[in-house]
Amino acid sequence: MNVLVTGGSGGIGLETALGIARKTAANVWVTGRNEGRLEDAVRALKAAGASDARAFRADFSSLDDVRRLANEVSAAAEGGLDVLVNNAGLWHQERQESADGFEDTFAVNHLAPFLLTLLLTPRLMEAGSPGRAARVVNVSSRLHERPSALRLEELVGQEPSYVGLSVYARTKLCNVLFSNELARRLEGRGVVSNALHPGSVQTDVTRDSFLLSIGIRIAAPFLKTAAEGALTSIRLATDPALEGVTGGYFSDEAQLPPSEAALDTGAAKELWDRSLEWTGLDAGSLAGPLRAA
Fold first, then answer.
1. Which of 93, 153, 155, 206 is an S-S bond match for 212, by CB 3.0 to 4.6 Å?
2. Is 2-287 in CATH node 3.60.20.10?
C-alpha cells in the first residue's frame, strides 16, 4: 500500500502520515520544502512502523516542481498509489506571487494539489478497484463557508486591497469544489475523493503573520493539537467503513454538509476547466474519466 501526504514534514501533515503508518504499516511518503524537517519526518515514520518511509522535497509555489514531484512519485509507486492526502497549504497576509505569477496562496492551496492529483490519477486508478477504492483526501477548512460564491476573477486578479483571510477562504472553497468535481468524474472508477475540515488547530499555517501567530499561541489551550487535527484525515485515508464514500465533506470524523457555494456544480466545472488552463494541462491527455463529468 502506497500513501503520499503532502506537507507532511510537520504539523497536521506529519501527524496524518504517522497515524496512517501506525494503522496500516504502509509505504508512507511525505513532501515538504525543508530538508532537515523531511529527514526528521522519515525517522519518525520508520519508528511508527511504515514499511517504507520516504521524503520528496517539493515547492508547491512552482508548478514545474509539482510536475517533477508527480514524476518521482509515479516512478516510486509500483502497483499504484492507494492514498493521496492533499494537506499542504499556507496563508499569506500580504500578496506574494508564485514562481508562475499567480497569487501564491491560490497557487499552493489549489493549483498545486489540482495539478498533482490529476498527474497522479493514472497511478490512483491503477491501485483502485471496485471493491477497494484508492482514496484522495483533500484538507480544506471551515473557512470555505466564508465566500457566498466562487468568483474566478478574484482568484487570479489584482485586488485593490489584499485581505489574506479572504484569499485563504476562497482557496479552501476551491478545495471542496475540486474534491467534489473529482468525485463525480471518477465515480465507479476505483477512486474516491473527499474533503475535510481538520478543526481549529494550533499549526504554523499563520506563520507569515506575526499578529496571528501571537493570537494562535494565546488561544492554544482552546485549540486542537496537530495530532487531534489529523484524526479526520486519518479516518478518510484508512477506515474500511468509508469504502465507497465519495464527494463528502467531513469534520470531527463525521460527514457534514458543506456550504451551499461548495455544492455549486457549475462553479466546480468552471473551476476545473480554468484550472486546466492555468496549470497548462491538456484535457485530451488526461485519463478518460477526467475529460468530462
1. 206
2. no
Q: What is the per-residue pLDDT for 208?
A: 54
Phi, psi of 146 (to 5 degrees): -65, -45
The CA distances from residue 274 to 37, 227, 253, 277, 278, in Å, are 34, 35, 32, 5, 6
Q: Is the pTM of this model over 0.85?
A: yes
User: With the CA atoms of 1, 244, 272 and 11 taken in that order, what torsion angle do they form, in degrees rounded to the nearest 10?
Assistant: -50
Q: What angle do CA 78, 81, 85 make, to 5 degrees?
A: 145
Neighbours of 231 (CB within 10 A): 19
The domain spans of the chain are 2-287
Distance between CA atoms of residues 171 and 105, nearest Å: 7
What is the grid cell recorded at 264? 455549486
Instruction: Single out the residue of 159, 130, 166, 135 nearest to residue 233, CA to CA.
Output: 135
Give the C-alpha distances (Å, rounded to integers) separating 177 from 79, 115, 145, 248: 29, 15, 12, 11
- Which secondary-structure segment (H or E) carries 293? none
Type of residue found at 45? L
User: All 3 cell numbers of residue 162?
Assistant: 489584499
Strand pairing class (2-5; 254-255): unpaired
Cell numbers standing for residue 239 = 477506515
CB 80: neighbour CB atoms within 10 A? Answer: 19
Within 8 A by CB and 6+ apart from 237, the residues are: 3, 16, 20, 83, 85, 135, 137
What DSSP string runs through 165-190? HHHHHHHHHHHHHHHHHHHHHHTTTT
- Helix or strand or coil: residue 37? helix
Which pLDDT tens digit goes with each residue over 238-281? Answer: 999 999 999 999 999 999 999 999 999 999 999 999 999 999 99
27 vs 25: CA distance, rounded Å: 7
Catalytic residues: 168
